[in-house]
């Protein structure tokens, strides 16, 4: 059996990292698996990009995005690359889609894949599969009704674009039985609530992680608080709440230091170096305002580092409150500070986190 994984990026972002880890896990089990990513051009400051993605962004700028920081919150999948004529696609028995936006696969390419008759698995790394275009809907529940009057869309010319995109997805899913995989129970739950076409199979399977790399180390205690995100300026990642929490802790007289990758220290691409940083940190804080099941929490826990995060998305599925970490009230910087203080005071935080991570992983897989 040959499996083809499709992902916009190879290792950029949590979804791509999860896809790459799954590829390696499949190969270790003897599965003939390969992964295909978006073909890119040379671009500004060496950042990979494609003509199809540029065209998609131009459409968004013309219609509904007010700031550059919000440029990546939507994808209408109007432009893409045809991969169905490639040898890899034609020889594959199973097509496993992951995060395929930003000019990789457009609707017409997705239709070709569905109509090919091949078995299809689609891992949902965010909410895009069942919305009219946004990757995270936040408090909006328009996807249950058809994504009309989208709060992201400002221009009247595109006011109905999200509804049309939603309808296209529904028609596409009705044409073929696709096995959808949610990375968290939270995402499976909202997918089940009339978000996807009736009759589609939806499973909840956490992302894989290599515990031979991410593991506890015998390191001295520190007061360093680690924050990891692909973009520190992404408001959805909530770094400003961590900064507020740290200021609260310092006013209380607690000595803490924040290490935010991409701001305080350079990004680290080597997994072994990253695992060492997790293990050396006093705690890992993920103040995300919207998230699925972050790889970073699993990585930190696998390294024996307790985690603190808000009660949102799939985060409470991984953090057992006041056992292997702390689940703070949503958008409450004071409670986030209390959580950080709690795990820093725990003298056995490393061993407790490691043991509870193992137990929690067993509970998650058992519940599927």
Description:
With 368 residues, this protein is of the alpha/beta class. The chain contains twelve helices and eleven strands. The protein has helices at 14-28, 51-63, 87-91, 107-115, 161-174, 185-192, 239-251, 271-280, 295-302, 315-318, 333-345, 349-366; strands at residues 2-6, 32-36, 94-97, 119-124, 179-182, 201-204, 224-227, 257-260, 283-286, 307-310, 325-328. The strands form two sheets. Strands 2-1-3-4-5-6 form a six-stranded parallel beta sheet. A five-stranded parallel beta sheet has the order 8-7-9-10-11, with helices on both faces. Helix 5 (161-174) links the parallel strand 4 and strand 5. Helix 7 (239-251) packs across helix 11 (333-345). Mean pLDDT is 81; it is low at 41-46 and 359-368.
Supply the key terms.
5-stranded parallel β-sheet, 12 helices, disordered C terminus, single chain, alpha/beta, globular, 368 residues
Structural class: alpha/beta
Radius of gyration: 21 Å
Q: Count every beta strand, where a strand is a DSSP E run of 2 or more residues.
A: 11
Q: What about the largest sheet? A: 6 strands, parallel
The shape, in one word, is globular
Round the mean pLDDT to the nearest integer and report it: 81
What strand line-up does the widest sheet have?
2-1-3-4-5-6
**Helical amount among residues, as a percent range?**
25-40%
Distance between the termini: 25 Å
Per DSSP, the total helix count is 12
Strand content: 5-15%
SSE string: EHEHHEHEHEHEEHEHEHEHEHH
Low-confidence stretches: 41-46, 359-368
């Amino acid at each position: 059996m040959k499996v083809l994984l499709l992902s916009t990026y190879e290792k950029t972002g949590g979804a791509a990292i999860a896809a790459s880890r799954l590829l390696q896990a499949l190969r270790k089990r003897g599965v003939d698996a390969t992964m295909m990513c978006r073909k890119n051009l040379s671009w500004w400051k060496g950042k990979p990009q494609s003509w199809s993605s540029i065209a998609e962004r131009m459409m968004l700028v013309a219609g509904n995005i007010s700031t550059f920081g919000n440029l990546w919150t939507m994808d209408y999948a109007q432009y893409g690359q045809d991969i169905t004529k490639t040898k890899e696609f034609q020889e594959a028995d199973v097509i496993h889609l992951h995060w395929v936006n930003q000019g990789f696969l457009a609707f017409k390419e997705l239709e070709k894949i569905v109509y090919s008759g091949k078995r299809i698995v689609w891992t949902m790394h965010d909410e895009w599969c069942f919305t009219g275009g946004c990757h995270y809907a936040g408090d909006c529940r328009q996807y249950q009704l058809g994504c009309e009057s989208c709060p992201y869309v400002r221009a009247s010319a595109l006011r109905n674009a999200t509804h049309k995109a939603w309808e296209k997805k529904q028609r596409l899913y009705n044409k073929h039985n696709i096995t959808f995989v949610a990375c968290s129970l939270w995402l499976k739950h909202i997918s089940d609530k009339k978000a996807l076409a009736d009759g589609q199979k939806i499973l909840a399977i956490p992302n894989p992680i290599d515990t031979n790399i991410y593991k506890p180390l015998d390191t001295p205690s520190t007061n360093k608080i680690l924050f990891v995100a692909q973009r520190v300026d992404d408001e959805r990642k909530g770094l400003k709440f961590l900064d507020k929490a740290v200021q609260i802790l310092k006013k209380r007289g607690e000595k803490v230091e924040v290490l935010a990758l991409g701001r305080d220290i350079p990004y680290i691409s080597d997994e072994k170096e990253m695992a060492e940083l997790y293990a050396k940190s006093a705690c890992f804080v993920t103040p995300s305002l919207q998230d699925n099941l972050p790889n970073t929490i699993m990585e930190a826990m696998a390294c024996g580092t307790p985690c603190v995060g808000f009660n949102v998305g799939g985060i409470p599925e991984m953090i057992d409150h006041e056992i292997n970490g702390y689940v703070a009230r949503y958008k409450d910087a004071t409670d986030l500070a209390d959580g950080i203080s709690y795990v820093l005071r725990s003298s056995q935080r490393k061993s407790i986190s490691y043991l509870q991570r193992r137990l929690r992983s067993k509970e998650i897989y058992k519940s599927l």
